[in-house]
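Let us practice reading a record.
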Amino acid sequence: MERITFYTEPPAGEITMAQFEGFGFDRLTVLSEISALADSGLHSQEKSERMKHVIQKYLPLRKNNDEDLQRDRISHHILRLAFSAPDKRDWFLRQEIALMR
């Protein structure tokens, strides 16, 4: 699973409001789980297994699947907007960096 992506340009095209909400919610779920696991006392292996499960459920990136890549790109930019306030930005960036690991 290749997760390293750098989205410097916002996505083009249109999505429905339901897609916007769903994409944002799914990515927020993953980032929230990353944050919770970072603060847990679990061993690295268990953290890794839990993250793998959450990512596969909410942000899958299957090989040669443009739809997954587009969803990842859109959801990243949705949360960039949602967490653009200075007091929220640091949390978002920490979780996105952890997601790329």
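A brief commentary: Residues 3 and 101 are 8 Å apart (CA to CA).
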